[in-house]
Amino acid sequence: MKNALKTFPEELKNLLSVKSQRRMNYVIPIITTGERLNVALLSPYQVVLIDDKTIFVSVNEGSHTFNNLKSDGKCALIIFFPPKAYYIYGRASHLKGKVFRVDVDVVEEDYSEEAPILTVPTFSDDKVRGTYEEEFKNLLLTFQEK
Q: Which of 29, 64, 82, 115 has the fewest beta carbons closer than 10 A?
């Protein structure tokens, strides 16, 4: 059952907050619309929660996700925290380079006693950390500039 939340739950803040230097290797699907419906898999190094209404995301320039965010801006992120999932809906605007600001419309919590989520999809931490730490630093710098 889905429930709209008034603020970000603490577990999401701990995972994504701009103040949180420790990033987990969770897979965060982002769904975008535009030229065509698209799904991409982001890491928490590419998603930074600024406050309860703002997220910065970093996506590959020229990708379908990048082009969709630039043209349409509508997006949804999915974050799994067993036994539930969170859906973050918003509209993105391009800031610079690979970075977009997502203005959050609503955060929903989805949980079912009949079908609880058991595990979190994860990336290989060894590979993700090395690949995306630089993007994380760029997101933090973009935040400091705003």
A: 115
